[in-house]
Amino acid sequence: MFVAEGGQANGLDSDLGGLLLAAEHANRRVSRTLANATVVTVVSEHMGDRLNSPNDIAVRSDGTIYFTDPPNGLVLSPDESVLYVADSTAGVMAFDVNADGSLSNERDFIETLPNADGMAIDMGGNLFVTTSTGVQVFDPAGNSWGTIEVSESRRVRRRRPRRRPARRCARIAGRDRNRA
Fold this sequence. Notes:
By secondary structure, this protein is an all-beta fold. It contains no helices and 16 strands. A hairpin with a 2-residue loop joins strand 14 and strand 15 (134-138).
């Protein structure tokens, strides 16, 4: 699906019906794209205040939608008992997810990470966190497995005859997740 005006969407996920959910920075909302490509607002304010800059989304198996506004990534543990939230200035926090979907027991999971952002988690509960130093990997207890180094994309210039314009290539990398 291509959306011409995506509201500077960052975090993407799908709801239980397979419809696209987007955390839109520019439109200050979380939206859902319907099957006919109509985009509708899911939420644009919290407790009477407009959202600031939604960043990421995670959807629980019961349909509960979590999003960040604006702290960075978020992801649920495989058993959905813990919600991890990355904050670029404070590392990664963890919250217990109660049976009704509410959150409790906020705590530091990883205290210091350089510019923590998007996250992913594997079925073993290992947490992958994008940072300014690469993708840092942690076990379910928060112990570091190490860092996957990611090289900066480099512009490669090849000599071409002057009559042909130079071509530019870009590499796009995926990422991200939400707020409570």
